[in-house]
Structure formats: structure tokens, C-alpha cells
Amino acid sequence: MAKLLPFLLLLTAPFCGSVLNAQSVFPVTGFCIGAPSPEKVDDFANFIDNTLAPSGVNTLILRVDFEYEYKSRPELRGDHPLTREQVKKLVNICKNHNIELIPQINLLGHQSWHSNVTKLLEVYPQFDETPGVKMPEKYEWPNADGLYCKSYCPLHPEVHAVVFDLVDEIMEVFEAKSFHAGMDEVFYLADDHCPRCQGMDPATLFAGEVTKISNHLNANGARLWIWGDRLIDGNTSGIGMWEASMNNTARAIDMIPKTVVICDWHYERADPTPAYFALKGFDVIVCPWNQPTVARNQVEMLHHLKQNATAKMKKHYLGMMQTIWSTADRFLEEYNAPVVPGEKSQAACFKAMLTGIEEFGNEVPSH
């Protein structure tokens, strides 16, 4: 009980603005969130200064997607794009705190949400893997089309010229050495009606797209990060279709470059899949969301994996990264709101992760 006391106090304490200092043997203490709106850049900059940096966060992923004033592809600017000057403000603050700032643009999957396609398929509908699946006026899940999010066709001959323009530009403005391509929850792939992909192996297609993106980044001295769910067999593991794959992409794990960093997200349990990725030779980061007890269990699991690993395996366990799936603006409000014990909370989960890192942050003995 004494060991759990700091964790229990954290869940019931008010959010008074104090933060923890998560120093640990984990090389990465990360935070992943959507880019702030232009109106809230100053507030988010203060959050970096006053919360993320003092808490020990050293890696910040900002999901930008189309919310930047792209010069290379101005037709793909979102409705509320960040300016170059606003991004540079965040870049400089992160530099001051030695925080690695990593941009994300969802590639392959997540090209729609609910009843709307993203800017890519709006402007370039020919890239749609499933053009026969129409966007509903009112989205519901499940549905007859199996529509969660659309994908672009990875074999379309023109798609990479477009998306790599975005990638190159956002990497330049972020002065980044790593890029997150998303690639989670890809349900539409090798569609029976796609003239290019039909009849093909989904694992080969997925691996081909990961490899193409990775090679493009490597040529510019950068490294690819992706979510890990499509590389886990959802049937064998029992994890299912969301946090793992039920559409035959899992074998891609043996076809992609080992330089890819795997962000291994699990939100209901501390599934021991980091060991799977590490055994396959990948660097892996464990990612919670909104359940404090899950986050704490994940930190403990990762600590024990490192503690009981060979030197070769140990280096693959990079650390922890909190994921935020509300807007940045909304999260800033949540972070400063009172905690309701027992309720799911991204803010409480983040603080629990930091507490766990402190608790299990003693040096791991070498083997």
C-alpha cells in the first residue's frame, strides 16, 4: 500500500499546476498531441515551458496533418493552418528545453473521419483506395461498408509525389530528424475493387508503403515512426481489430526496415507486445491514453522488461509516450480542471505515467 500511495494521491489531488520530474532510464519520455490552433499557439508554448519541460518530457509529437500553410501544396492547406512563424516559435521553445519535436501527417490510413474525407482525398479523389464507398450523411459504426477511415491507394502512381512534398516541407520547418506517419487502423487495403491493389497481399502492400516512406526519410537523414497495431496479429494475440490487425497485415513486421520506431499503443491493458517488437529488432515506445492504472502498469511492465533483458534487447525499449486524442486546446482545459476520481482522464493518465516513471526510474542493472 505504501508503494501505491503516491499514485493514489495523484488521482485524487486537484490539478494545481505542479508537475513531476520524470527522470528515468527510459531514453524517451514522450507526449503526442494534435497541433494547437493558431489562436492557442501562445497557450501551448506556455504549456511546453511550464509543464512538459519541467516534467521531464523530452519528445513531443505534434499531429499536424493538413493544418499548416503549405507552400509546396497550397491546395492541401486545412481550414485553420499554422503559419511558419508559429511553428518556429514552438521549434525554438523545444530547442531551449532539449525536447525533440516530431511532426506527424497521417499517411496511408485515416484519410477520412466520420462523414468527411480529409483534404488529400477531397482535392485528389483519384487517390481513394475505395471510391465506391460513399461518405454517409450520418456516420455510424458498425456499417455495411466497414467504413472506419478511408485510405489512399499506396500503388497510385501519383500519390507519393504529393504526400512527400508535404512531408519534406513539414520536416524542414520543424527542423526534424524524425517523422511520424501514423499508419494505424488501416482497414481499407488490397480492396477487391481497386484496379491496382485487388488480389494483392495486404501485408506486402503495407510493408511496401512503410518501406517507401522510410527510404524517403532515410535519404534525407531522418527516421520513420509509426503506430504498431497493424504489425500485431489480432487473432493470435486475442487483442482484436483495433489495437492489432485482423486484416492480414501483421506479417509485414518481417518485411519492413528495422530502423522504424514502433509506437505500441494499448489503452485497456498493459499488453506485453513491446517484447514482441524488441525481439523482432525494433525500437519500441509504449503508449497509454486515458486510464491511469493502465499507464502505471505499462511503466512497470517496461521497467521489468528492461530489467530482465540482455544488453541487445534492452536498448530497444525506448520508453513511454502519453497520447492525447482530444484537440490540444481542449486538453489544456482538461489539464487544469479538477480530477474526478475513477473517471477516465487523459490528464490524470499523463500524470500517472510520470509518477510511474519516477517510481520505477531506478537504474536498470546491466547483464
TrEMBL record:
Entry superkingdom: Bacteria
Q: Which residues form the Glycoside hydrolase family 20 catalytic domain?
A: 81-325
Q: Which molecular function GO terms apply here?
A: beta-N-acetylhexosaminidase activity
Q: Which residues form the signal peptide?
A: 1-22
Q: Which UniProt keywords apply?
A: Hydrolase, Signal
Q: Which InterPro entries does the entry mention?
A: GH, Glyco_hydro_20_cat, HEXDC-like
Checking Gene3D superfamilies in the record gives:
Glycosidases
What is a single Pfam family found in this protein's UniProt entry? Answer: Glyco_hydro_20
Give GO terms for biological process: carbohydrate metabolic process
The record's family statement is: Belongs to the glycosyl hydrolase 20 family.
Record protein name field = Family 20 glycosylhydrolase
Biological source species: Cerina litoralis
Upper lineage = Bacteria, Pseudomonadati, Bacteroidota, Flavobacteriia, Flavobacteriales
